[in-house]
Write a structure and sequence with these properties.
By secondary structure, the chain is α+β, with helices and mostly antiparallel strands. It has one domain. About 15% of the residues lie in helices and about 25% in strands. The chain is built from two helices and four strands. The radius of gyration is 16 Å and the shape is elongated. It binds zinc ion. The site of zinc ion (ZN) has 8 residues, from helix 2.
């Protein structure tokens, strides 16, 4: 009770995601997750912000396998 689980795996089917580099749509199970994080400094500008209650300023993006290979991410 009260836990926030189950949000990620709703349904369990893979939705197509678009590659951040080439824009091609690829199934999510085949995509490589790219984490882009913004500057932490922007968070510090907000007064009274509790870092633990906020998501880290990361943007989850996906790259197709060929782009990931090209960029040596896998
Ligand atoms: Zn790509």
């Amino acid at each position: 009770m009260g836990k926030k689980w189950g949000r990620y795996k709703a349904g369990g089917r893979s939705q197509p995601v678009s590659c951040v580099y080439c824009g091609r749509r690829t199934p999510r199970i085949k995509a490589v997750i790219v984490r882009k994080h913004y500057g932490i400094g922007s968070l510090k500008n907000i007064p009274g912000l509790d870092r633990r209650r906020v998501f880290l300023p990361q943007m989850k993006a996906y790259a197709c396998i060929s782009c990931a290979k090209h960029r040596r991410m896998i």
